[in-house]
Write a structure and sequence with these properties.
single chain; 2 domains; 3-stranded antiparallel beta sheet; 11 helices; flat
């Protein structure tokens, strides 16, 4: 007589390399952007930040360095106006979005005559979707919705014009960098490390499960009393799970009462050799790849200590690492933001903004440089600020006018077009305003 056996095979899910897709073929007027699902890009990026410790430390640390001590102007007459136009807290939020998502946005308010910008506010970029351009040379509108995954919330979405394309009082100044193959959105500079952020998250789940299971090895329990009904099997599984899983149940033992020794349950331990070393290697490799993706020259700058630092002393490491990070990572972010703001302010009625970021330099670097040069700490900080000022924000009397008036020479599908008024406005008497 053939005995019945009950054996299940579990297919483990496979994670593919994240590919970001701008879906322009939908029936929507806006462009969804997704990685795994149709419009889950921003949610996946947010999840990677909240579940990966190394990734979160890099995003927060670099965002803080980009913001520094805030944004200021060399034009003393414009200083007070700048403080009212763009609050520092709004700048800080925009910088954080730009670092985390690769995209950021201001909501810009004009005066009643649409000739002067009166306020810049941060707007959560994950709530914005770009309108399809169709035959237009650039994006003219953005849609705002608090939850793009909720079909009911989409019904309450708001359509807001892009900066410099309308006469509306509220416009969206969308900040992004060039990304090959993308037009509507850009990718963060650390995008190649997204899967390693997932790895760190899964490793944390693994260790949490080990703790909850009392660090018990993988065990197969064989019940030798025949195959019970599905309902009875579920009851037995629930009882075993309740009694022997969780941190409070670690160290418990099992008692089995049997009327026949041949029918006693058997426990088979499934041992995996060198599992601890394998997990340690994966954890270290994932952390290293995340640091590389963020272009972190020294983890010490963000409070992350690794086994190999590569310098003879921590002071030397931090000084050299900060210099490289400032040049290769921080300055490009600051220049991107200043260029967008400078262009927007010029169009908004402020001709000489002369913006710059006051740098946030580690004290150990300031003090060491001051000792070597014979300067004070404040003088060293001032030299660093002057050396890292965005050249595009400094007026050049010999600059060539690069404005293209001939529309036939203007290219289409530009990834980061400059703002320019493409409309005319008149007052109630028919007089031209611009």
């Amino acid at each position: 007589m053939k005995e019945n056996q009950n054996f299940s095979v579990v297919n483990l899910s496979q994670q593919e390399i994240p590919i970001v897709v701008e879906d322009t073929k939908t029936r929507y007027q806006w462009v969804p952007v997704g990685i795994i699902g149709p419009d889950d890009y921003f949610q996946n990026i947010t999840d990677s930040y909240t579940t990966s410790t190394t990734h979160a430390a890099c995003v927060e640390g670099i965002a803080d360095l980009i913001f520094g001590k805030g944004i200021y102007t060399e034009n003393e007459g414009f200083s007070e106006t700048l403080g009212k136009l763009i609050p520092q807290e709004e700048i800080k939020r925009v910088i954080f979005d730009l670092k985390l998502y690769g995209n950021a946005a201001f909501q810009v308010y004009w005066d009643d005559t649409h000739t002067k910008v009166i306020k810049f506010y941060h707007i959560p970029v994950q709530n914005l979707r770009a309108e399809k351009i169709y035959d237009n040379p650039k994006i003219e509108n953005y849609y705002y919705c608090t939850d793009w995954m909720d079909q009911r919330a989409q019904k309450n979405k708001k359509k807001i014009p892009a900066f410099g394309t309308s006469s509306e009082k509220l416009e969206i100044l969308y900040i992004k960098n060039y990304t090959p193959g993308k037009y509507y959105y850009s990718l963060p500079d650390w995008m190649s490390g997204l899967q390693f952020a997932y790895v760190e998250a899964e490793l944390s789940n693994l260790h949490l499960n080990n703790i909850e299971n009392g660090f018990m090895p993988l065990v197969m329990i064989n019940m030798n009393n025949g195959i019970p009904a599905p309902e009875e099997r579920q009851t037995i599984e629930s009882m075993i799970e309740q009694k022997f899983t969780g941190t409070r149940n670690a160290g418990r033992f099992m008692i089995s009462f049997n009327d026949d020794a041949d029918r006693r349950p058997t426990l088979d331990t499934i041992n995996i050799d060198n599992l601890h070393d394998k997990y340690k290697y994966v954890a270290e490799y994932a952390q290293d790849r995340i640091l590389v993706a963020h272009r972190v020259t020294s983890p010490l700058l963000f409070g992350i200590r690794t086994q190999a630092n590569g310098f003879s002393s921590q002071s030397e490491e931090m000084k050299t690492a900060y210099s490289i990070l400032q040049t290769m990572t921080i300055n490009p972010f600051q220049n991107l933001i200043i260029n967008f703001l400078d262009t927007a302010l010029t169009l908004g009625g402020y001709s000489e903004s002369e913006l710059y970021f006051e740098q946030l330099t580690p004290l150990v670097i300031l003090s060491t440089t001051a000792e070597e040069t014979g300067q004070t700490v404040d003088e060293v900080q001032e030299d660093i600020n002057d050396g890292s000022q965005n050249p595009a924000a400094i007026e050049d009397e010999g600059a060539i006018d690069t404005n293209i008036e001939d529309e036939s020479l203007m290219g289409y599908s530009r990834s980061n077009p400059k703002f320019a008024r493409e409309y005319e406005m008149y007052d109630d008497n028919g007089n031209k305003l611009n």
